Amino acid sequence: MSKQTKYIFVVGGVISGVGKGITASSIGLILKNRGLNVTAVKIDAYINIDAGTMNPTEHGEVFVLSDGDETDQDMGNYERFMELSLTRVNYMTTGRVYQTVINKERNLGYKGKNVQVVPDIPLEVIERIKKAGTLAKADVVIIEIGGTVGEYENILFLEAARMMKLESPKDVIFVMVSYLPTPGKLGEMKTKPTQHAIRTLNASGIQPDILLARGETKLDEKRKEKLSILCNMFYDRIISAPDVDSIYDIPLNFENEKLGDKICAIAGIVSKKLDTVSWNKWKNFAKHAHNGKDTVKIAVIGKYFETGDFMLADSYLSVIEAIKYSSYAQNRKPIISWLNSVDYENHPAKLKELKKYDGIVVPGGFGSRGVEGNLKVVKFARENKIPYLGLCYGMQMMIIEYARNILGLKDANTREVNPNSKNMVIDVMESQKEHLKNNLYGGSMRLGAYKAVLAPGSVAAKAYGNAGGEILERHRHRYEVNPAFIMDLERAGLIFSGKSPDGKLMEIAELPKNKHPFFLGTQFHPEFLAHPLNPHPLFNAFIKACINNKKK
Ligand code: GLN
């Protein structure tokens, strides 16, 4: 282990979903603002090699990295909070680790040895963590172990963490994010589940250095003392982390609790003082989340919302964040509504209600469910001059709608929905045919960062502040605008204002400003490159159009 690299493991207790990812991201931000070079690793315990083959309602958003890795939404949080650009070394799953070990065994990589779950699986985990640190030349690697302690699934990852600590005790520390419930009927915050969680972690040979006590309210002195004694923890390393209105306040709250200094002291991290210039930038940004005066109302038309009886917008996390950043940058509070595309199929009268919104977003999607509803929404936005931003599937919808209603090709469709259409305006990419024929679905889409060239003077070029230069954006798709229809669509007024450098692939479609205030779709996913302090130019332009629309 290199002397200077420190490893901070973030683990969860009691329940998942209480903010381990945001905690890891916030710790990273705090350390980065102390002049440290920080990187992060996410561990997901599932067998899947990546998140790409999972249904969004099962997994939440699939966050695509610049190298095309299909990962977990926490990777997006890391990139956004810490302004990082991560790659596949920063992400691992049980499937990935086992696959490497098994391949190595087949290649005689273990030189005839009996390959065992322990230690060989944890050793591979350790190698991956260290590699992420080495490649980033990191002072600090933050490793988030998904799920909670006590699950079968993540035992081998905890084992890896324990082994790393044994190898270099001073360089490895553990932060536990645990939940303290306040059951309504009792009316008091209970520490017992967290006590059990820490005992469980102890059984893995690990003692947390810091406990972040998540709860609806603040952790009081009395309970802090109790946890300190019963969990064998220093009192001042137990930190209250109550619910907050905005996740962007979390790094600020941590800093108020001196978490950065504490971590540096425990891990022996030598750092500069907090850089007040960049810290103030974050503070100013975080303030916007509390400004409720001027609003902008955005409708997001999706379909991956329902999980059992609950509604979650997790599948569209980066889209929501991108909308927020561009709204905050223009001093607006976004009011985002989740609307189900399927509803517009069954109740077309609902379309009129869309007039309430200042702008409409149709995000990425797969399969035929909700497509006809989406097409109605696109038509409504086009005809009623409501600002429209289509992301990937949302752009493909724009093309189909235009072909049907302007070119008069009534059965225009995408091959993904209707393989028998005579007017396949969206067709499968040449490079994808082989994959589909052989059922090779995993990691085989057109993925990751590709360049596009912008048409000078277009809405897109103006948004990027770039008179016809190149952009680099992240992709995740199998289908594309069918080249056979490009000329007809262009003659009918649609402009392809972004194309792949060889001119073959349509990356952005738009209507000119004199025809529509903002009607633009991208084959890529701009939302993956929207950062709090660097909002995305296309979202900026869209929100600007929404604000203008509101004024009318
Ligand atoms: N299903 C479409 C395709 O594969 C769009 C994908 C997406 O929206 N990410 O091309």
TrEMBL record:
PANTHER family: CTP SYNTHASE, CTP SYNTHASE-RELATED. GO terms for cellular component: cytoophidium. Residues 312-544 form the Glutamine amidotransferase domain. This is CTP synthase. NCBIfam families: PRK05380.1, PyrG. Pathway: Pyrimidine metabolism; CTP biosynthesis via de novo pathway; CTP from UDP: step 2/2. It comes from the Bacteria. The keyword Cell cycle does not apply. Keywords: ATP-binding, Glutamine amidotransferase, Ligase, Magnesium, Membrane, Metal-binding, Nucleotide-binding, Pyrimidine biosynthesis, Transmembrane, Transmembrane helix. It holds the Pfam family GATase. Residues 6-265 form the CTP synthase N-terminal domain. Its EC number is 6.3.4.2. It catalyses: UTP + L-glutamine + ATP + H2O = CTP + L-glutamate + ADP + phosphate + 2 H(+). The keyword Lipid biosynthesis does not apply. One of its GO terms (biological process) is 'de novo' CTP biosynthetic process. Belongs to the CTP synthase family. The chain crosses the membrane at residues 7-31.
